[in-house]
């Protein structure tokens, strides 16, 4: 048996030795194993050997590089929790900007319809459906990601239609001028960027790498999906922080109006938007 505070401090030290100095991570793993929040810990209170062993295993997984979000099995996005794990892109706070951009726009439209491409966990599609009551379609190709998407839509009672399909040909099935808003957080890393970032090795490569220069999805989506947008409809795309000029140029070349880049909570260029 070991005291709660001592075990928590051990967790901090183990993570710090591996270069993870965020005490919030230690508190998250501790709570996951013990059910105890950091502010509730008492030095004399003991933790069973079984619980201590469970925490040790969680710490081992994190030290080896497994994402905290996968270890927890769910992660917050805006004001709700999403199931996530191996095989699906982790929902990140940067992507909240993409969701909020669509929500703000759709609130001003009458009887709108929205489409979220490369939907993954469904973070953007579910956000739109929950905040605007808009008829929202979520397109996803990966079977593993679809499993999480279905669970999240069901758990959150979101009015989202799930479609399995390939973003590179799904546009052919859409009616002209049928959508008010299209969103996408596509794969946008280059192969070298993916290989150089060890923390990404647990996430699916196909959800992160967007071709030789990271722009393959933009080159297709921007022209191919414009026909499906109503006049004045919004296309909003998440980007890598170094891609704003290229993606803005692709949209301007295809005749989108008021093309601009929005910055995320970390002050990095994150969303390029334009109107049909």
List keywords for this structure.
11 strands; 7-stranded mixed β-sheet; two-stranded antiparallel sheet; 10 helices; 276 residues; elongated; alpha/beta
Oligomer: single chain
Structural class: alpha/beta
Q: Give the terminus-to-terminus CA distance.
A: 64 Å
Strand percentage lies at 15-25%
Low-confidence stretches: none
Strand order across the biggest sheet? Answer: 7-6-5-8-9-11-10
Report the C-alpha radius of gyration, rounded. Answer: 21 Å
Proportion in helices? 25-40%
Q: What does the average pLDDT come to?
A: 93
Number-wise, the strands total: 11
Shape: elongated
Main sheet makeup: 7 strands, mixed
DSSP summary: helix tally:
10
Helix/strand order: EHHEHHEEHEHEHEEHHEHEE
Would you give an account of this structure?
With 276 residues, this protein is of the alpha/beta class. The chain has ten helices and eleven strands. The chain has helices at 4-17, 23-34, 49-63, 68-72, 96-106, 123-132, 143-155, 191-196, 216-224, 244-253; strands at residues 2-3, 46-47, 74-77, 80-83, 113-117, 135-140, 160-164, 179-184, 229-238, 257-263, 269-275. A seven-stranded mixed β-sheet has the order 7-6-5-8-9-11-10, with helices on both faces. A two-stranded antiparallel ribbon has the order 1-2. Strand 5 (113-117), helix 6 (123-132) and strand 6 (135-140) form a beta-alpha-beta unit. Helix 1 (4-17) runs parallel beside helix 3. The longest helix has 15 residues, at 49-63.
Outline the secondary-structure elements.
Layout: E1 2-3, H1 4-17, H2 23-34, E2 46-47, H3 49-63, H4 68-72, E3 74-77, E4 80-83, H5 96-106, E5 113-117, H6 123-132, E6 135-140, H7 143-155, E7 160-164, E8 179-184, H8 191-196, H9 216-224, E9 229-238, H10 244-253, E10 257-263, E11 269-275
Helix pairs in contact: 1-2, 1-3, 2-3, 5-6
């Amino acid at each position: 048996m070991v005291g709660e505070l001592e075990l928590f401090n051990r967790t901090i030290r183990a993570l710090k030795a591996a270069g993870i100095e965020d005490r919030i991570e230690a508190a998250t793993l501790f709570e996951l194993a013990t059910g105890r929040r950091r502010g509730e810990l008492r030095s004399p209170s003991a933790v069973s050997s079984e619980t201590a062993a469970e925490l040790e295993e969680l710490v081992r997984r994190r030290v080896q590089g497994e994402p905290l979000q996968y270890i927890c099995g769910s992660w917050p996005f805006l004001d709700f929790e999403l199931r996530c794990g191996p095989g699906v892109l982790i929902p990140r706070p940067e992507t909240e900007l993409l969701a909020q951009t669509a929500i703000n726009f759709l609130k001003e439209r009458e009887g709108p319809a929205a489409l979220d491409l490369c939907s993954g966990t469904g973070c953007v599609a579910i956000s739109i459906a929950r905040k605007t009551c808009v008829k929202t379609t979520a397109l996803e190709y990966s079977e593993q990601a679809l499993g999480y998407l279905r669970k999240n839509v069901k758990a959150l009672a979101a009015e989202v239609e799930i479609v399995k399909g390939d973003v590179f040909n799904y546009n052919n099935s859409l009616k002209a001028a049928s959508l008010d808003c299209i969103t996408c957080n596509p794969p946008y890393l280059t192969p070298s960027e993916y290989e150089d970032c060890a923390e990404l090795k647990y996430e699916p490569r196909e959800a992160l790498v967007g071709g030789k220069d990271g722009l393959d999805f933009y080159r297709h989506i921007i022209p191919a999906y414009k026909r499906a947008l109503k006049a004045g409809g919004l296309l909003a795309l998440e980007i890598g922080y170094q891609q704003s000029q290229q993606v803005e140029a692709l949209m301007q070349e295809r005749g989108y109006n008021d093309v601009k880049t929005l910055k995320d909570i970390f002050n990095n260029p994150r969303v390029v938007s334009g109107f049909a």
